[in-house]
């Protein structure tokens, strides 16, 4: 392609092309269901600076409602101060909306090849395109590629954890352990931690320790809440037993007592019995360390935890 800044050359397959009403409605529905009613393409348009031309909101640009709107969007993209590859990436995303006729090379692929769009840009755009359309597993096929530098990692994680159509609890874990995104936003940390706690109480417990203060305590309390406030059943029973078997430090033991004894967790189902069983297990005789130096401890003075666990499962705390 000689000139991607020429609309008629980019859309040479149909210079009069316009989005169908059905396509427009599907995109708008996807935006309505997305985090904060914002698609990832909206974020990219904002990154290109197009929001400054639209009263601070790039969402009015996409999807374009007519051929003229599409031409205006193309013009604003190529006039943005962003690098060529960024402009081309957004145009590639837009071209993915085209449904080609049978046996014709897809316009998006043809465009990427014509402008020599680097592979990592193409992979990332494929990923967020599927993410915007709530095709989460397919999106992660692209977004977990090693060649990518994490972009919008917290927004991606929050989407995977909270989107109403994303019901596979393994996908946020796959993204986290594959990409290792830095999570700093409190709401993203809380959303990911809730997913992690459902998967493994112990893993969530040790992950919370790595977050530092004051996040450590709030996540520790969130873990207690998530376990005891879960729907009644075998899963809650199993996780409650796992919770009271965790190797608390002295500080965590104090938090546990305060949260279930006098704090916000005292009215949780089984709170009193959970606290009582934990106290029985530790015997309040030094079984729990009085400092943070025993964070890695795995047992409590040789107590028979398996038999204690069995007694808890048969006790009253799970009947509530």
Provide a descriptive summary of the structure in words.
With 320 residues, this protein is mostly helical. Helices cover 57% and strands 0% of the residues. The longest helix is centred in the middle third of the chain and has 14 residues. The protein is elongated and about 80 Å long. The N and C termini lie far apart (69 Å).
In short:
Helix content is about 55%, strand content about 0%.
Explain the layout of strands and helices:
Blueprint: H1 7-10, H2 21-33, H3 40-47, H4 67-79, H5 84-95, H6 107-114, H7 119-132, H8 136-143, H9 153-162, H10 170-179, H11 186-199, H12 201-209, H13 215-228, H14 234-244, H15 250-261, H16 271-282, H17 305-313
Helix pairs in contact: 5-6, 5-7, 7-8, 8-10, 9-11, 11-12, 11-13, 12-13, 13-15, 15-16
Which terms summarize this structure?
320 residues, mainly alpha, 17 helices, 57% helix, 0% strand, disordered C terminus
Query: What does the largest sheet look like?
Result: none
Shape: elongated
Distance between the termini: 69 Å
User: How many β-strand runs?
Assistant: 0
- Amount of beta strand: under 5%
What would the average pLDDT be, to the nearest integer?
A: 86
**Segments where pLDDT lies below 50 for 5+ residues?**
287-320
Which structural category fits the helices and strands?
A: mainly alpha
């Amino acid at each position: 392609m000689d000139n991607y800044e020429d609309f008629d050359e980019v859309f040479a397959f149909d210079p009069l092309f316009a989005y169908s009403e059905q396509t427009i409605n599907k995109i708008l529905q996807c935006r309505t269901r997305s985090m904060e009613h914002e698609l990832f393409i909206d974020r990219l348009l904002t990154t290109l600076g197009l929001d400054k031309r639209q009263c601070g909101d790039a969402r009015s640009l996409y999807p374009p409602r007519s051929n003229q709107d599409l031409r205006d969007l193309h013009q604003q993209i190529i006039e943005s101060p962003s690098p060529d590859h960024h402009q081309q990436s957004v145009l590639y995303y837009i071209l993915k909306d085209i449904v080609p006729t049978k046996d014709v090379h897809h316009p998006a692929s043809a465009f990427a090849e014509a402008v020599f769009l680097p592979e990592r840009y193409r992979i990332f755009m494929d990923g967020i395109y599927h993410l915007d359309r709530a095709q989460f597993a397919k999106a992660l096929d692209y977004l977990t590629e090693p060649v990518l530098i994490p972009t919008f990692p917290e927004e991606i994680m929050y989407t995977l954890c909270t989107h109403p159509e994303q019901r596979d609890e393994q996908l946020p874990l796959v993204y986290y352990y594959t990409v290792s995104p830095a999570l700093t936003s409190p709401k993203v940390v809380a959303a990911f931690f809730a997913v992690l706690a459902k998967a493994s109480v112990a893993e969530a417990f040790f992950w919370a320790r790595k977050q530092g203060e004051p996040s450590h305590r709030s996540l520790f309390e969130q873990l207690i809440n998530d376990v005891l406030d879960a729907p009644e059943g075998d899963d809650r029973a199993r996780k409650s037993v796992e919770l009271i078997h965790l190797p608390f430090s002295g500080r965590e033991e104090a938090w546990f007592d305060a949260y279930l004894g006098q704090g916000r967790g005292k009215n949780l189902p089984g709170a009193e019995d959970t606290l009582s069983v934990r106290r029985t297990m530790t015997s309040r005789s030094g079984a729990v360390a009085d400092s943070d130096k025993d964070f890695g401890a795995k047992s409590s003075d040789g107590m028979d935890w398996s038999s204690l666990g069995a007694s808890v499962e048969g006790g009253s705390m799970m009947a509530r």
